[in-house]
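Dear support,

I submitted the protein below through the web form. The confirmation email said the job was done, but the results page showed an empty box. After a refresh the structure appeared. I'm attaching both so you can tell me whether what I see now is the final result or a partial one.
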Amino acid sequence: MLAYSSRLPLIAAGGIMDGAGIAAALMLGAEAVQMGTAFIASDESLADADYRARLASGAASGTVMTRVISGRPARSLASDFTRFAQEVDDGDVPDYPIAYCAGKALHAAAKAAGNPGYGAYWAGQGAPLSRALPAQELLRRLAVELHDALESHRPRGPVPSDVTYPVPGTAD
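What the results page shows now:
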């Protein structure tokens, strides 16, 4: 495992949407987690109404990988833009930041014409688990869930003296 073979801090990301996910990452050796999709629906997010509506709908279960939005592979909610991307060969997509700037311009033009379906609706595979809460409340709930998850996995009783556990950053 990377956590046991590196002295660098490991930050886990991807699919972490609740306290149990945070606990799992920490138990596997991560020092911290990065949670993007979990905060899109928060009041403080800059996500527009269409983005939030898509995230709260069945569209959250249909994330897709695409390069067309930014020029780099990324996961997004399915949209008119990602459907368009299926027709574009990866080799024809300009690199970042050209593709990203073109995508932002396309979204602005489409939205002005009444079609919001060309936004960069970034979302990970955990999107169906998103919660529309203020960030402070989401953080409070994540802390409670993390505590509960760690408590439920805490060893009960004494640890046998002949059992050893690897310690990250040490050579054994």
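Response: this is the final, complete result; the empty box was a page-load delay. Residues 1-43+133-167 form one domain.
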